[in-house]
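Journal club prep — side note

Before the paper discussion, L.F. wants everyone to see what a predicted structure for a comparable chain looks like in token form. Sequence:
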Amino acid sequence: MNYPLIAFLVSLGTVFVLPMIGTLLYKESNKGRAALATGIVALMYFFVLWLGLWYYNSGLYGPSPLFWSITIGLILGAIFGGWHSADADEDEFFNPSFGLGAILAAAYILYALGGWIMSSDWQRYDDKAHLFGKVEIVKDVSTSLQPADPAHICLVSDSMAENSVHTALSNFKVAAGVVPGSRYKIGEGTKQFVDGQLWWIFPVEFDGYFKWKQDKQVPGYLRVSAEDPTAQPQAVQFNKKGEEIHVKYLNSACYELMAVRYLRHNGYAKSIFGEFTYEVDDDWNPFYVAPLIERTTAFTGYVYTGIVLLDIQSGKFQHISKEELASNPKWHWIDRGADLEILQYQLSKWGQYDHSTFWDNFWHGDKVQKSDGDWYLVYSGNRCFFLTDMTSNSSDQALTGFAIFEGATGRAIFYSAVGVTAKNASQAASSLWANYPGTKVAELVPYNIDGHMTYVVPMIKNKQFMGVSLICMYDKNICAMGTTFDRALAKYRMAIDGAGHNRTVPNGGKEIIKLEISGEISEVGMPIMIDQQQYFFFMLKGVNKSFEIPYNNANLSVPYLKAGKNVRLTYTDTKEPVIICDELEIIGLKFSNENPNQARYVVNQGVSKKEVEKKKK
């Protein structure tokens, strides 16, 4: 984009040409003084405008591009043109030079105001109710969000990742003698599914102009496992093929290497960009994903149309429509194309006007749904989704369902349900850890767990991982906690079964199947108290797995486990490394529900009855 030319044309036309036309129409004007004054002001405005447009990387989009630049220029031209074209003795200010600039400025403002009014909600509420197209209404959430794979659950919150990632920057290999932390800073992390796992990806940014001047590239980025709270953060300076990473086009870079300015100067002067997202592909190459936004109702009605994918190493870029993001597997590694701010805007309009008009909402508002304000990043398979609770507009804030958006395409889904809001779920999660003072919620991550929408809640104390709470979105009384996800999941499944609900597994949403196995015990471990629950461990002959089972009313025979005994047990096949049993039976060991004294009582009653009969005879 040629910012100097744009600034020159705007300043010339508004601050110099228009006032001079007015001056020529005014016979009593001091034309020489007016030309000199407006020329100086126009030159000053040119430099200020040029710097401002360049610094803010302004685009030329919308019904009134450069609105403030033109409006301010017209006002300056009216003021200085009118003042300096007047005769020095008479000092007449309100003359044609002032009037022409003032009239044009007022007309331009009224034009923009009229456009804003015509595109406001009360004029276009029906259009704005369907900005993201047709909303898919689902009754079974499993049709949109697959049951989660327990091996890929996010247990590391953004705060936990940020707390640990600084150690990775210290391992960053740069030029000899350079301390990485003194030259670079860590950018904002984004959660991504990369190469089969969940990660927090942190860009390494330039720390100001002078640091950028020393070395105009960053040799990599940082990553933190989003699945394993004990994993160490890593510096990534080579891609999967062993090639060195050298990042140049960042928004923290300067001059023409700033990513947004680079795109503006290379064909995207008239585009509206959403928030740039730092993403890496499955070969660990870094990119910027820049959402493209368009207006559909003059000044408003924002919609997401696709992305610009920028290779921040080479500078190569390409436009990808949201339709292609959905249909072409080549781009399925891109998690977050849609801009969250635009999704929030579209959802608010849908919640307001899908079942009502502007004036109905103005007077009543009883058909309005709205987001509770909290958005969650959810993964179903390797696809990213944004999810938010939808509540009524009344004071009770009752849950009406969940709005779900596919991250790459912005496809909208609404799952109608009643249940637990995020605030109530957070309170329920904290109450499970009441015996561990100082433990608090790190974040809430919604998942489809065995066919039940569930908040997975990592718990922390002093920014250190303590364990997990699981809270059912439909009923907060279906809940569980554990120091590991596996243990919390085992308890949670028992709570679901106890409530009489069916469960599903991650293989396509089929009804869950409990597997049964019989065998001879080969080894028995020491019982361990975990999360206020006693667990017993054992192995079976010919099975290279460790089995564990909690002691409870459903498994009363567990303390009698011994090597050599034959057992029959059931468990859920979720491909987990350790098999947590649901039920266990020691073959040949039976428990009676009768009182041990009952049999003796019956015998004694018989004896007593015979003695009484003898006496009667």
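L.F.'s comment for the group: Residues 507-511 have pLDDT under 50 and may be disordered. Keep this in mind when we get to the figures.
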